[in-house]
Amino acid sequence: MGKSFCILFFFILNLIQTNSYAQDKTVDSLKIALKLAKHDTTRCSLLDKIILTDFTRKEWPACTDQLLALTEKNFVEEKNAVLKKFYLRYLAKALEHMGTRVYYNGQIPEAISFFTKSLKLKEQAGDKAEIAVTLNSFGQACFELGDISKTLHYFERSLKLREELNEKRGIAESLNNIGTIYINQNEHEQALKYMQKSIAIWNDLNDKVGLGAALGNIAVIYAKEANYVKAIEYYEKSLTIAEQIQDPTGIANRLTNIAVVYQKQKNYNKSLEYYLRSLKLREQMGDKLATVNSINNIAALLLEKGALKEALEYGKRTLKMAKEIGYPDNIRKVARTLKFIYKKQNNYTDALAMYKLEIQMLDSLESQQNKSANIKSLLKYEYEKKSAADSVKNSEGQKVKDAQLKAQTASLRQEKAERYSLVIGLVIVLGGLGFVVNRFRLTNKQKKIIEQQKLSVDEAFNKLNEKNKEVLSSIHYAKRIQTALLPSEKLIERNLKRLRSLKK
Length: 504
Description:
Layout: H1 10-16, H2 27-36, H3 40-53, H4 60-77, H5 81-104, H6 108-125, H7 128-144, H8 148-165, H9 168-184, H10 188-205, H11 208-224, H12 228-244, H13 248-264, H14 268-285, H15 288-305, H16 308-325, H17 328-344, H18 348-366, H19 372-375, H20 387-442, H21 447-473, H22 475-503
Helix pairs in contact: 2-3, 3-4, 3-5, 4-5, 5-6, 5-7, 6-7, 7-8, 8-9, 9-10, 9-11, 10-11, 11-12, 11-13, 12-13, 13-14, 14-15, 15-16, 15-17, 16-17, 17-18, 20-21, 20-22, 21-22
């Protein structure tokens, strides 16, 4: 039951991310504005705000579908560069929202697919603040898959970007998220430091949503340390804020944690009351992952209370849901609860089956290299480059340099060959010019014409010499000389014909 305390509060922040909208702008008023909107840019902005403001997520299916369709269509058809960039940004946001939507339905791989597409577009747009948002979403999805190292990787990347941008709200959110991982790994002292930093920023910003999440996480720390009085004190503070901002996700999380504390105090009736209130909210929101956790918590409570028949009903119900979602940690927790229920009923066959399932899921989690011993080295607030990452980067960098060197060498060889060809061509042309000049000298009747032509040829010769110097430094100038020489040959040919006609 120890991990039941750790109902992580960073999930609520996914709805808000780095943007905050005025609390008086209700979903209803935004929907009215949407109906009156005459331009698609306005519609995109309003749909985005509705999704971010709707904590109940009732409007999400319709709004996310509409926003995605609207942005995809306009991004393809729009010719204006400014508007095209606008639709690119909102298409990235639409994909992010779709990812969050399926995330809450328990479809984590699908969520990661949407986040990947969103991140690619945000990188294309060069929007660092939005990139940080998606990296944070990646971290949350990886946490649900039980991949702690990747969770930290994405949270830290998000924090680094937000620090570069000096984006206070985003920094506070990332600090809170990293702190929750420390809580999960029982690094309570370190977790508390992160939470206190986060709270200081939330207070400065007067952001109740973020403040409530951080207070809830501090309560988790006290609860895990069996300081139940302090735990309930902080949970109640966090619950009050969640109710003030009408955030059902936050309310459900806080109700669950208070229920856990009462359960630890053996106050089963009070605990069940809070669990059931939380379950009702989560079912209303369609949050499948959280619903599985709530039902399993109730089954475990009834087991502890001795109500085995009811406990088994809840246990079977939640196992079916957990298998449908298909994530190891959820299945492991439910299998563990059912194992103890069957054991209490002396049903050792089913108890053994649940034990095997629990071990199978545990092995699956361990295969993802998420042991606590490896976590501490990954949790560095300072973003020193990891040696393995550096090695990969250096190796890739050397490959790029080698490729560039080969390309440069090939280019130089080509230029050298072209220069030789050009010199030979010039010698031939100049030899031809010498022959023509000699013919002009032999023609006495056209002495003046020959002399003028000679001057013209000499001038061309000098120009060619100058051009030849330029050729040695740039192949582009060489091409110009070749082009320039063609008219000169034609001019000579015309003069020869004129001379022949005069000679006759």
